[in-house]
Q: What sequence folds into this?
């Protein structure tokens, strides 16, 4: 898509009548708020130790056990119970590897351990995005320019209109359709997004760079295709052929059923990752910002922008684990380099800061957050649209 289609500065700016909470804070309040949020980070980092390293190592161990169980079960994938159990185990393994391990390790959350293997610069993940390209587009661009219109390319991933300030174009009429495609093939959409078509179009990125990045995506694609759609289906086919009642027919069925199981697991992982990430960024509750609003941004202002531009998802410990703790998206955007296992621990302190400074703390159940995301995508496919009402200052639930 041409860069002009995602231009967020329409000829007639929308008068939404909603004042950002950022504008209501005095410079003195922002300075003090910045010190409070810095203190939380410093206290957690001073406390990191054995229980934290044990957590990430046990999570990686769990992932590997799930993979081994899935591959063993799928050797008998022509039997429906084994297919279901193997597909479920493999889906969980891929979700865990993508969300709680890959995303967070590559954020540098575990670099403090000085482990050469569990390190942001050496880790790669089982997804289509090359590690270097993702670290630049996500760790640097998105987490630096979070929700700044015209700067944060993750706002709609350059292909969707998810904020009324974005100028409408007829191509957006198709966004409910390609939103569904993005959901199912999210890893590939992110990989293509990381290429940065605007930089290619402007010449900022050279042809050599583009070819290198395309080659890296090709390597990741080949690895996944060989592993999930050739090697393991072939292994299941061989196991079926070598069985007591082995035949070419049973071997072909085993190949097809294992391939289908692997494809299903990849789709499940993609839909889950899409849902968690979109719920953390695009519900009605979140704010976006013009470049003028953040031109003289202070440390405290940066924290407030991260807080206002993110949204949490309610859930229990297992849900948070499978969400990569991105269900604590507010805490993640405040502290992207903090181990994700600490987000639940600091959330009450973040809420208390919101209460005292009159700031919202955006959270809600998955169905509600995801529902508002899809409603926005459907409504803003058409011209017009208004900024949805925003939540008021955080007020703790009465005990």
A:
């Amino acid at each position: 898509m041409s860069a002009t289609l995602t231009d967020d500065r329409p000829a007639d700016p929308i008068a939404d009548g909603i004042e950002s909470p950022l504008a209501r804070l005095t410079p003195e309040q922002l300075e003090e708020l910045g010190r409070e949020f810095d203190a939380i980070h410093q206290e957690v980092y001073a406390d990191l130790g054995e229980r934290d390293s044990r957590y990430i190592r046990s999570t990686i161990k769990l992932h590997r056990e799930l993979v081994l169980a899935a591959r063993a079960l799928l050797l008998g994938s022509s039997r429906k119970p084994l297919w279901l159990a193997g597909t479920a185990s493999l889906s969980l393994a891929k979700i865990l590897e993508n969300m709680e391990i890959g995303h967070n390790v590559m954020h540098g959350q575990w670099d403090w351990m000085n482990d050469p293997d569990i390190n942001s610069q050496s880790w790669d993940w089982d997804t289509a995005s090359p590690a270097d390209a993702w670290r630049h587009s996500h760790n640097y661009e998105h987490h630096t320019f979070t929700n700044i219109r015209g700067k944060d390319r993750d706002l709609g991933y350059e292909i969707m209109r998810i904020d009324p300030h974005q100028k409408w174009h007829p191509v957006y009429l198709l966004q409910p359709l390609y939103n569904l495609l993005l959901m199912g093939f999210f890893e590939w959409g992110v990989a293509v997004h990381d290429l940065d078509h605007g930089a290619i179009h402007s010449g900022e990125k050279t042809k050599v760079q583009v070819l290198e990045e395309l080659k890296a995506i090709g390597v990741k694609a080949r690895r996944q295709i060989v592993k999930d759609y050739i090697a393991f289906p072939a292994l299941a086919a061989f196991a079926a052929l070598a069985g007591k009642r082995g035949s070419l027919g049973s071997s072909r069925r085993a190949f097809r059923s294992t391939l289908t199981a692997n494809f299903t697991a990849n789709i499940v992982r993609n839909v889950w990752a899409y849902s968690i990430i979109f719920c953390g960024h695009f519900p009605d509750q979140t704010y976006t910002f013009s470049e003028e609003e953040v031109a003289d941004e202070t440390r405290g202002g940066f924290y407030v922008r991260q807080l206002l531009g993110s949204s949490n998802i309610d859930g229990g410990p297992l849900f948070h684990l499978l969400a990569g703790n991105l269900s604590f998206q507010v805490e993640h955007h405040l502290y992207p380099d903090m181990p994700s296992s600490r987000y639940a621990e600091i959330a009450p302190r973040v809420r208390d800061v919101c209460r005292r400074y009159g700031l919202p703390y955006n959270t809600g159940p998955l169905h509600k957050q995801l529902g508002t995301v899809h409603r926005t995508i459907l409504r803003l496919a058409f011209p017009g649209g208004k900024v949805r009402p925003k939540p008021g200052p955080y007020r703790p639930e009465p005990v």
